Amino acid sequence: MITIGHAQQNRQTYLALNTTARRTLGDPKAVTLAWDPENLLLLVSAASPNDPDSYGITESSGRCSVTAIMRDLGLTPAEAHAMPARKHGPTGLVVDVSGIRTRSIRRAA
Fold first, then answer.
1. Could you give the angle at the alpha carbon of 108 between the alpha carbons of 57 and 15, nearest 5°?
2. Cα–Cα distance for residue pair 74/93, rounded to 1 Å
3. How many CA atoms does the CB half-sphere of 93 hold within 13 Å?
């Protein structure tokens, strides 16, 4: 499961990987995100923390801050939403975000 949520106290959007998701990705220290706007899919892939496009994952909670990228994508969740993820290749998970209640979501034209 992957959770995308919005912390009201600091207006931060986060992405959290549960233990199974982290293990599926090989317990990465960071992830990268790729967006499919036509199908509203998010690809979460294991990455090196040295990759400038990666988001570092906290070891204790499995969370990473994704505020800027989610804002850029027009995907700002109104509340925390846990979603199933399916394996995509050796180091990726795909999440369908079409069911998230959002403040905004940009759909492909």
1. 15
2. 21
3. 26
**Mean pLDDT per 10-residue section of the chain, whose length is 109 residues:** 82 91 94 93 96 93 89 81 92 90 54
CA–CA gap between residue 46 and residue 40 (Å, rounded): 20
CA triple 96-51-49, angle to 5 deg = 85
Widest CA span of the chain, in angstroms?
A: 39
Distance CA 19, CA 16 (A): 10
pTM: 0.85
Query: What 3-state DSSP class applies to 64?
Result: strand
Cα–Cα dist 96/50, whole Å: 27
CB 79 within 8 A of CB 5: yes
Order of strands across the sheet that contains 41-47: 55-56, 30-36, 41-47, 92-96, 85-87
